[in-house]
Amino acid sequence: ELTLDVEVLRAEFPVLGRRVHGDKALVYFDNAATTQTPKAVLDTWVDYFERYNANIHRGLHRLADEATQAYEHSRDTVREFVNAEDVREIIFTRGTTEAINLVAQSWGRSQLVEGDEILISRLEHHSNIVPWQMLAQEKGLTIRIIPVDERGELDMDAYRALFTSRTRLVCVAHVSNALGTVNPVAEMARIAHEHDARILVDGAQAVAHTRVDVQTLDVDFYAFSGHKLYGPTGIGVLYGRLSLLEAMPPWQGGGEMIRTVSLEEGTRFAEPPHRFEAGTPAIAEVIALERAIRWVTNLHFELLEEWEQRLLKHATDRMKGIDGMRIIGEAPHKAAVISFVVEGAHSQDIGLLVDQFGVAIRTGHHCAQPLMHHYGLDATCRASFAAYNTLEEVDYFVDALQRVVTMVRD
Ligand code: PMP
């Protein structure tokens, strides 16, 4: 029988052995901001520099060949990870933010015209809002907002009603970083396509927690970051439907993305995905990302989801016992994220004080100010879990939180 042996996998993360503020064992509950990195991924990164550091694609020598093979092998692992049909649909970017900007600047600038409409949900991270506002300003587009209800779920009737003959694109997070809400992206994609619109899904908070299949979801673009997936910073992925990518102009110009360059006759561009990867990429990070994907896949998503849901339920049940506690966002289908405020206490004070117990949580607007304002808040505290967190850590956190709340409310 398969089980998730949390103690064994914790041992793979050197940082989890750290003590902070003197002798406090680190309890890391800021996984929605960034996950920690297992030794296997760190070793893969170092191994690249120690054995075959070289620039890719153009070199004929041994090291360049090895680096190129490893880089392109990672692309195929990513393809398999999200079940894309074709490896040419996988573009490496710096992260989710850059992936979304790529779609806005390439697809958006070339395909959208004045008066076209984009639907964006109220629970988006700023990185799935601001690039569209910038484009809307440049092009004269209209942005319409998919509303969120009190529980933190998208209002699907309102969503259907927002479509007009001018709707061209839907932008939505698979999982909300601020609330944990899992959005019905497959259904949203179906509705978007009925209206001949495209859909871009921000998967930054999804890929480390649930199996993603871009063909089953039937989405047009899907973006995510390596550093929320037990991998390095500085690397992310854009999946794009091949027929769309083939029609998209380059975004950045430079080396790697061309077929031929002539000062007299101009430049002919490479085919996707290379057309969208100008310059020397983050080679080591791409290779380490592959290792991270293999690491998380080896945990088995069914077991991982079951474990994280147990952590979520245990934490939610216990936190509700704290006086003045208000959990923000209680969608029935949630990832392991708990946003909360405590009546009579500032979120920042809570964050600073639980840190003194060694517990890392996040406080602030979580780059989702429109969503915060929907709840009449400027900030919340957020605890977010990953594979290596334990029920004992949850208990320790809730006990610390209880003490902190008693302290600040007195
Ligand atoms: N979208 C969501 C839902 C996120 O949680 C984040 C990271 N907080 C991003 C986008 C941006 O990711 P990155 O900073 O890695 O580009």
Automatic annotation (TrEMBL):
EC numbers, comma separated: 2.8.1.7
Keyword Nuclease part of the UniProt annotation: no
Name of protein: Cysteine desulfurase
Membrane-spanning ranges: none
Organism taxonomic ancestry: Bacteria, Pseudomonadati, Pseudomonadota, Gammaproteobacteria, Oceanospirillales
Pfam families per record: Aminotran_5
Origin superkingdom: Bacteria
Reactions performed catalytically: (sulfur carrier)-H + L-cysteine = (sulfur carrier)-SH + L-alanine
Gene3D superfamilies: Aspartate Aminotransferase, domain 1, Type I PLP-dependent aspartate aminotransferase-like (Major domain)
Aminotransferase class V domain span: 27-397
InterPro entries per UniProt: Aminotrans_V_dom, Aminotrans_V_PyrdxlP_BS, Cys_dSase_SufS, Cysteine_dSase, PyrdxlP-dep_Trfase, PyrdxlP-dep_Trfase_major, PyrdxlP-dep_Trfase_small
Cofactor(s) required, per the database record: pyridoxal 5'-phosphate
GO molecular function ontology, one term from the record: pyridoxal phosphate binding
PANTHER family registered for this protein in UniProt: CYSTEINE DESULFURASE, CYSTEINE DESULFURASE 1, CHLOROPLASTIC
Protein function: Catalyzes the removal of elemental sulfur and selenium atoms from L-cysteine, L-cystine, L-selenocysteine, and L-selenocystine to produce L-alanine.
Single biological process term from Gene Ontology: cysteine metabolic process
